[in-house]
């Protein structure tokens, strides 16, 4: 019985969000709260030679200025600073010493009685530096590219597969060839909520920390290790997160600074970053890609070469999967894929929505379009001709793959059949119209997680797991899963998250939360059900005394006999036999790796985009787009649609608007504000449509879901670039496609 | 070797701290008497001094609209407004939109249309939409898109935000 799963249920946290009651990290009250203000380095590389805080410290109400000069002794070894998402290398340690490793690095924290005073005092502090030459330009340093170091984090991000066949030979002989270089700059996540931490200094020296994070347990681990505090004395709470997009996958420096100050001053403190400082930690790395494709005269793709060089910091090797997708999408026999890094004087990049996926597909799917044109084939037809049921990298079949149906339904909804293939052949009055399409793919991952299910004495079901809801709809879909698993009315079910007192869940990222935490919630509720059934069997004159588990069903807050639904015991009566105590069960869900390893598992999409280009101004507008997604089971079509729409908006942003522009003279991102870092506003977004294609998958995880967080964005930029080509005849290989590139 | 001063270090000597002023603000129908220095923005007055944290800080520079509130019925960015400038004003925040009879129709429509994801820009979007409707300038969906473009939603809920506002304005969804 699934009365709730699959239904467009309104968000269970909706009322809290529309009334302002949902509280984010910087919004918790604490007695005697002090405020911290971070001072960021103004140089990209060198040393702090002098910090003159005298004028600031003289102000009444300024409490302390923390810097490397007065920070307390902390953990010595790199290991202690490694969070759950730390790439191989030596993590950045704020205020460690006088060394400046990147522009915007936190070099001091001013603590004062009020926010305004801390901000003002920070402006009085003089910092002198000894500057060294820095290097921040990826394109000037491609000759330094080297293989990434491997480490634990590499497990989830495998390096490219070994070359197959002979690319060089086959490419040279290919009847149809394309080759191109694709570039994009760094990008910053810029969630609406700025990173903030409120540390409540409790009487017994314990810390209650409200942190902006995509994983409360990750922040707890970091604080515990770095400051040498036992887990039991650090509780991290994060029930609402004002957007993450990957930025919260690692603890950010405001957490470190707030905890340091709270412990030194023995009082509660809040540290919020400014929007400008939101550009001073991880970003999507700039990347330079070279794609070469060769096909037969009939349009059979035979040779693929995809090389990518990404930037990283001087201290950690951040990697992403950029080039592997070609081998997962196309059955070519001669394939060479390489991925290398150039360390620069920047902060370590961090996963940003569809890390690597949107990067790689933006190049690959653009090149495929170009090849289809050269082969004289429609881009959809070309992709159908080069369809694969197997992941060629691993040589494994897909657990399910309804991509063909995505092409069919997406094309039909969009009206693709009415397209005239010739570039510049479609117009709307003065403007050129272009129709482009692309394929999307993202791996469907499943991680271990734990959840607790409790039936309270008044018959309510309370389920919890220390996961996060960054706007993805976790609260709602977990409530649906719990309600269905234990046959409860949804209004009697409450799901809670974002608290380290709850059972452990991994960081929320990679589109794995629905699969991972959903499976844990399901198994916890099943286990609670079994326990309740046993209790029901022991009740006086139990109708279930000789009944087996598979003969009953949980329905409408009762256990019922399948054969005769009138034979029933209410869950409330069962919990009533427990001596006034709730009944609870905590369970772990582990991926069935023995079964899963026999298959490749991925979510797919087909994206169709219409653009209008004004040639006089070079302006591009996405007037309409359709994304057809094969994402397994859709738990909630309403929140799922929002996920895909949001991804499509991100795709429009990446394709046409956003980019962090580095001034290499200063080694600093210049456009560090929401006025200059362009993201779509309401007027930029027109008609977006989403189709969920029917897809059943019994391998990918017990729920059959594939994850929707990344699939909405991955194909969009290439589809836009392809539409721009169709409109103008210009193949733009540098994102975003701003007007200067079209004039 | 080059020595650089932080760009923040423009002032060399501390000037005396600003004096506090009595400020009277009527917020969601309740009169509040505050003692605030002129450097306190209306946004910080709401969040830090009155703990009305429904109004959000997304940039502190008037670039994102998360801090939108209604002052004497007009939508403004509260981060660009000093609290002392609004002495005597009547202010409505997200906390003041629902009444005993229930949620404001826009709040209900935002829930029904899933016109949000993370929820952080939502109070600003809703207050802005209330202001938009009072202005009476929006006649079509395109007008709504244009006139709501001061409120950034990084989650990208725009199509649903437009749907929700259209429904409450009872505009023809096909217009």
From TrEMBL, chain A:
Alphabetized SUPFAM superfamilies for the sequence: CO dehydrogenase molybdoprotein N-domain-like, Molybdenum cofactor-binding domain
Domain Aldehyde oxidase/xanthine dehydrogenase a/b hammerhead: from-to ranges: 19-133
GO molecular function: iron ion binding; oxidoreductase activity
InterPro entries linked to this entry: Ald_Oxase/Xan_DH_a/b (IPR000674), Ald_Oxase/Xan_DH_a/b_sf (IPR036856), Ald_Oxase/xanthine_DH-like (IPR016208), AldOxase/xan_DH_MoCoBD1 (IPR008274), AldOxase/xan_DH_MoCoBD2 (IPR046867), AldOxase/xan_DH_Mopterin-bd_sf (IPR037165)
PANTHER family for this protein: DEHYDROGENASE (PTHR11908:SF153), XANTHINE DEHYDROGENASE (PTHR11908)
Protein name per the record: Xanthine dehydrogenase family protein molybdopterin-binding subunit
Automatic annotation (TrEMBL), chain B:
GO molecular function: 2 iron, 2 sulfur cluster binding; metal ion binding; oxidoreductase activity, acting on the aldehyde or oxo group of donors
Ranges for domain 2Fe-2S ferredoxin-type: 21-97
InterPro entries found in the cross-reference section: 2Fe-2S-bd, 2Fe-2S-bd_dom_sf, 2Fe-2S_ferredoxin-like_sf, 2Fe-2S_ferredoxin-type, 2Fe2S_fd_BS, Aldehyde_Oxdr_Iron-Sulfur, Beta-grasp_dom_sf
Name of this chain's protein: (2Fe-2S)-binding protein
Taxonomic classification: Bacteria, Pseudomonadati, Bacteroidota, Cytophagia, Cytophagales
SUPFAM superfamilies the UniProt entry points to: 2Fe-2S ferredoxin-like, CO dehydrogenase ISP C-domain like
Record key words, sorted: 2Fe-2S, Iron, Iron-sulfur, Metal-binding, Oxidoreductase
Keyword field contains Iron: yes
Species: Larkinella punicea
């Amino acid at each position: 019985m699934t009365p709730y799963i699959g239904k467009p249920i309104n968000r269970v946290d909706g009322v809290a969000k529309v009334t302002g009651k949902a509280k984010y990290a910087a919004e918790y009250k604490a007695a005697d709260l002090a405020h911290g203000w971070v001072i960021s380095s103004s140089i990209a590389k060198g040393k702090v030679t002098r910090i003159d805080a005298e004028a600031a410290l003289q102000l009444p109400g300024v409490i302390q200025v923390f810097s490397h000069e007065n920070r307390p002794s902390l953990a010595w070894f790199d290991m202690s600073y490694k969070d759950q998402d730390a790439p191989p290398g030596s993590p950045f340690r704020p205020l460690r010493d006088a060394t400046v490793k990147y522009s915007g690095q936190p070099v001091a924290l001013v603590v004062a009685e009020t926010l305004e005073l801390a901000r003002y005092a920070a402006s009085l502090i003089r910092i002198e530096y000894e500057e060294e030459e820095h290097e921040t330009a990826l394109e000037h340093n491609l000759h330094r590219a080297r293989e990434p170091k491997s480490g634990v984090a590499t497990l989830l991000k495998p390096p490219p597969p070994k070359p197959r066949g002979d690319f060089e030979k086959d490419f040279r002989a290919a009847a149809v060839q394309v080759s191109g270089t694709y570039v994009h700059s760094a990008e910053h996540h810029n969630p609406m909520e700025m990173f903030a931490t409120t540390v409540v200094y409790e009487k017994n020296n314990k810390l209650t920390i409200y942190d902006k994070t995509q994983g409360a347990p990750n922040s707890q681990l970091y604080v515990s290790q770095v400051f040498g505090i036992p887990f039991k004395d650090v509780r991290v709470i994060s029930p609402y997160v004002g957007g993450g997009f990957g930025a919260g996958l690692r603890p950010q420096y405001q957490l470190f600074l707030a905890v340091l100050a709270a412990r030194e001053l023995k009082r509660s403190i809040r540290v919020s970053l400014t929007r400008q400082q939101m550009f001073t930690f991880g970003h999507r790395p700039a990347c330079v890609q070279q794609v070469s494709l060769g096909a037969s005269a009939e349009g059979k793709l035979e040779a693929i070469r995809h090389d990518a060089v990404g930037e990283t910091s001087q201290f950690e090797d951040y990697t992403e999967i950029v080039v592997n997708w070609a081998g997962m999408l196309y059955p070519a026999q001669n394939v060479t894929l390489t991925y290398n890094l150039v360390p620069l004087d920047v902060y370590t990049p961090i996963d940003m929505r569809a890390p690597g996926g949107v990067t790689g597909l933006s190049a690959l799917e653009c090149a495929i379009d170009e090849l289809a044109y050269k082969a004289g084939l429609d881009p959809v037809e070309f992709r159908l001709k080069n369809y694969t049921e197997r992941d060629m990298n691993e040589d494994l079949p897909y657990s399910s793959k309804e991509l063909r149906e995505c092409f069919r339904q997406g094309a039909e909804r969009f009206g693709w059949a009415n397209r005239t293939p010739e570039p510049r052949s479609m117009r709307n009055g003065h403007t050129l119209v272009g129709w482009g399409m692309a394929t999307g793919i993202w791996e469907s991952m499943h991680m271990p997680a734990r959840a607790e299910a409790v039936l309270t004495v008044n018959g309510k079901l309370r389920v919890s797991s220390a996961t996060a809801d960054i706007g993805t709809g976790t609260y709602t879909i977990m409530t649906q899963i719990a309600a269905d698993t234990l046959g409860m009315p949804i209004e009697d079910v409450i799901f809670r998250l974002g608290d380290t007192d709850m059972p452990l869940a991994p960081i929320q990222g990679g589109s794995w939360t629905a699969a991972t935490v959903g499976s844990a919630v399901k198994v916890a509720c099943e286990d609670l059900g079994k326990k309740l059934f046993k209790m029901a069997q022991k009740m006086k004159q139990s109708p279930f005394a000789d009944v087996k588990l598979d003969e009953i069903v949980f329905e409408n807050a009762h256990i019922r006999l399948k054969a005769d639904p009138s034979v029933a015991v209410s869950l409330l009566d069962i919990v009533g036999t427990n001596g006034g105590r709730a009944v609870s069960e905590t369970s772990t869900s582990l991926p069935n790796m023995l079964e899963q390893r026999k298959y490749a598992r991925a979510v797919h999409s087909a994206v169709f985009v219409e653009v209008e280009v004004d040639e006089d101004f070079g302006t591009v507008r996405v007037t309409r787009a359709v994304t057809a997604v094969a994402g397994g089971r859709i738990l909630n079509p309403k929140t799922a649609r929002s996920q895909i729409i949001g991804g499509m908006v991100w795709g429009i942003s990446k394709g046409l608007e956003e980019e962090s522009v580095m001034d290499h003279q200063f080694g600093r991102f210049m456009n560090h504000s929401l006025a200059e870092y362009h993201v779509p506003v309401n007027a930029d977004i027109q008609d977006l449509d989403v189709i969920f294609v029917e897809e059943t998958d019994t391998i990918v995880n017990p729920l059959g879901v594939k994850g929707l967080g990344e699939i909405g964005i991955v194909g969009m930029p290439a589809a836009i670039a392809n539409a721009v080509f169709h409109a103008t005849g210009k193949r733009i290989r540098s994102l975003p496609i701003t007007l200067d590139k079209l004039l | 070797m080059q020595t650089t001063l932080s760009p923040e270090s423009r002032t060399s000597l501390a000037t005396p701290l600003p004096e506090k002023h009595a400020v009277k603000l009527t917020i969601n129908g309740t009169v509040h008497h505050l003692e605030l220095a002129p450097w306190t923005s209306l946004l910080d007055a709401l969040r830090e001094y009155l703990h009305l944290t429904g109004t959000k800080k997304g940039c502190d520079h008037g670039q994102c609209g998360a801090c939108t509130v209604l002052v004497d019925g007009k939508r403004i960015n509260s981060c660009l407004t000093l609290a002392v400038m609004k002495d005597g004003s009547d202010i409505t925040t997200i906390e003041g939109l629902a009444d005993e009879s229930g949620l404001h129709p826009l709040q209900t429509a935002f829930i029904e249309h899933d016109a949000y994801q993370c929820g952080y820009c939502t109070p600003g979007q809703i207050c802005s939409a209330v202001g938009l409707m009072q202005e009476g300038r929006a006649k079509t969906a395109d007008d709504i898109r244009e006139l709501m473009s001061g409120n950034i939603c990084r989650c990208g809920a725009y199509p649903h935000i437009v749907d929700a506002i259209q429904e409450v304005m009872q505009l023809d969804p096909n217009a």
